[in-house]
Amino acid sequence: MKINANGTEISVILSDSNQEGDYISLTDIAKKKNPRDPAGVVANWLRSRNTIDFLGLWESMNNPNFKLLEFEEFRYASGANAFTLSPQQ
């Protein structure tokens, strides 16, 4: 399925179960900012302390298995210039 946001087509992957929720393609959104290197846009977004704070809040509200102590390590490190975070992490 695709949605159109201000002229940009964004893929949406619908979940097979009601418990998992749906997924929106960050790559499609990043292509609007930099069509040649959307992965770079996502990587830079994942380095931002604001993004890390948002992800922590989201997880604490929606994930009963969220590991707050492990998250605090990411949050603390996010202020460093050498900090990186991948979607897998």
SSE map:
Layout: E1 2-5, E2 8-13, E3 23-24, H1 26-33, H2 38-47, H3 49-62, H4 68-77
Antiparallel strand pairs: 1-2, 2-3
Helix pairs in contact: 1-2, 3-4
Order of helices and strands: EEEHHHH
Mean pLDDT: 85
Question: Helix proportion of residues, in percent?
Answer: 40-55%
What strand line-up does the widest sheet have?
Answer: 1-2-3
Write down the Rg. 15 Å
* Number of E-type strands: 3
From the spread of the alpha carbons, the general shape counts as: flat
Give me the oligomer status: single chain
Helical region count? 4
Low-pLDDT runs of 5+ residues are: none
The number of domains is 2
Cα distance spanning the termini: 27 Å
Structural class: alpha+beta
Largest β sheet strand count, sense and barrel closure: 3 strands, antiparallel
- Beta-strand share of residues: 5-15%
Structure characteristics:
89 residues; 47% helix; 4 helices; 2 domains; alpha+beta
What does this structure look like?
This protein has 89 residues and is of the alpha+beta class. It folds into two domains: 1-34, no CATH class; 48-89, no CATH class. The protein is 47% helix and 13% strand. The chain contains four helices and three strands, in the order βββαααα. It has helices at residues 26-33, 38-47, 49-62, 68-77, and strands at 2-5, 8-13, 23-24. Strands 1-2-3 form a three-stranded antiparallel β-sheet. A hairpin with a 2-residue loop joins strand 1 (2-5) and strand 2 (8-13). Helix 1 crosses helix 2 (38-47). The two termini are 27 Å apart. 1% of the residues are buried. The model has no long low-confidence stretch (mean pLDDT 85).
